[in-house]
Amino acid sequence: MLRSLVGSEMCIRDRYQRRVRGPTQSNMHPTLLLLGLAMLPLAASHGHITLPPSRHGGRLEFGGHCNNNACMWFSQPTSIPSEPTLPHHMRTYNLNVKTGEPGDWSASMPWRAPGSAPVQGSGCGVGGGNHVPLPNGGELDGAQGMDGLSLPKLPGPGAVWPRGSTQQVGFGILANHGGGYSWRLCKADGEVNEACFQQNVLRFAGDSHTIRYSNLSFVYNKPTVLPPFSIPRKTTTEGTWPVDSEWARIPMPGCRLCDQSVCGSGLYPNLTDYFESPLLQTLGYRDDHAFGGLKWFEQQMCSQTCSGFNITTCPPGMLQFDEPVNGISGYTLSLIHI
């Protein structure tokens, strides 16, 4: 039998390819074919498993909401170790240029070579993404830098999946950074690490996502239940790692208010540069100092502005790619989960 780590015997990880960071929510509900221990790729971001429930706090009914810090377990910074391999038609950002052309600002992003970017810790996420708190959503009081594998297991027997069965799984996204995802397993009673996850990647069953709204949808002060709906899922095995592993594209386009090439070439945060900016307190941080470096922080602000930071539906003509259905787009998708 297969279990999630929240049970005991297996650790299940959803790997979501990140670009930049900021607030959004959604929850993906792909159906997977469990082939014992199969194969699929990786990633890191403000996203989290919601089905089965995760020890990080993810629940299907909460969707992508992160009030309990469920989305705060990831790896940053990270980038691919070699050249991009993802087919152009699978991109979610930077579709206006080809690989290697001027303006190809996303070339080193994890989703440009799915599964190849290194991760920190066991692969079950790191509190705040790094041992150093960063002002792009990378601060987690009391658990900064903690390996997600160290979180307490959930009570009860956990999810039991018969070998070879087809199961529904779900994950939430706090911020629509684009990219994509796959699903992997690792036995929790052995050594849990990236190599183990790479040996046990799962295949998708079917060709659609089910989009679900969270239980936190309200009309005025009254909760409202909105019906789920299905949209096509776009997958590839080309350019993924491990070789021939299956990776799915995030189906909701982000906004393109401006081209991120105007923000300059991609910078890594300087983990020792403690900078000052009055914008930090405006954004809700405790004071006006943080790590990462001012130039990196300003580039993050520029990138997220171009992506439509806090916009729930993109304006006409300002999409990264076509909406799967009318109105399903944006950077902040807090009421939607897949």
Can you describe this structure?
With 338 residues, this protein is mostly beta strands. It is 7% helix and 22% strand. The protein contains three helices and 21 strands. It has helices at residues 194-198, 279-282, 294-306; strands at 2-3, 10-16, 26-28, 31-33, 47-51, 73-74, 126-127, 160-161, 166-168, 170-173, 180-187, 203-204, 208-213, 218-219, 222-223, 229-232, 235-236, 247-249, 270-276, 289-292, 336-337. Mean pLDDT is 83; it is low at 1-44.
Short description, anyone?
With 338 residues, the protein is mainly beta. The protein is built from three helices and 21 strands.
Give the secondary structure arrangement, pairings included:
Blueprint: E1 2-3, E2 10-16, E3 26-28, E4 31-33, E5 47-51, E6 73-74, E7 126-127, E8 160-161, E9 166-168, E10 170-173, E11 180-187, H1 194-198, E12 203-204, E13 208-213, E14 218-219, E15 222-223, E16 229-232, E17 235-236, E18 247-249, E19 270-276, H2 279-282, E20 289-292, H3 294-306, E21 336-337
Antiparallel strand pairs: 1-8, 2-11, 3-10, 4-9, 4-12, 5-10, 6-7, 11-18, 13-16, 13-21, 14-15, 17-18, 19-20
